[in-house]
Amino acid sequence: MKITANMKILVVEDDLDTRNLIKTLLRKQGFKNIHSVVDGVEGLDFLEKAFIEDSPVKLILADWNMPKLDGISFLNHLKNSIDFKGIPFVMVTADNDRQHVVEAINSGVSEYLIKPIKPEILVEKMVSAVKKAS
């Protein structure tokens, strides 16, 4: 799989300003098929619906700290799903604690991006995540 402008990207972020910032950065980088939800529960619902509609998500950008279902728990649900375990997953978080980074990697994140978000680093992490999933 390669990064393309039309690939379906799901942003899972509870903070409205950050969610809008990520979507704006992605649009400025040429991505057109960007969707967002506020937590992991909505993320799972969105993934199911997209899969049923035969329009699956190709990349997930998710925050760690969210209500209802945090980023790691969301990722663990995906890893236990035949349909979703192969989706590239970039953890986007303000948490740069080494222990959390190791936990995220051990949980199976494709890439780990620490806020504040720089557009060039965001795209670099996305490309890397997609390559790792191929």
Automatic annotation (TrEMBL):
GO biological process: regulation of DNA-templated transcription
SMART domains documented for this protein: REC
Keyword Ubl conjugation belongs to the record: no
InterPro entries listed in its UniProt record: CheY-like_superfamily, Sig_transdc_resp-reg_receiver, WalR-like
GO-annotated cellular components: cytosol; protein-DNA complex
Listed SUPFAM superfamilies: CheY-like (SSF52172)
GO MF annotation terms: phosphorelay response regulator activity; transcription cis-regulatory region binding
Protein's name in the database: Response regulatory domain-containing protein
Modified residues (4-aspartylphosphate): 63
Organism of derivation: Halobacteriovorax marinus
PROSITE patterns listed in its UniProt record: RESPONSE_REGULATORY
Keyword list, A-Z: DNA-binding, Phosphoprotein, Transcription, Transcription regulation, Two-component regulatory system
Positions of the Response regulatory domain: 8-130
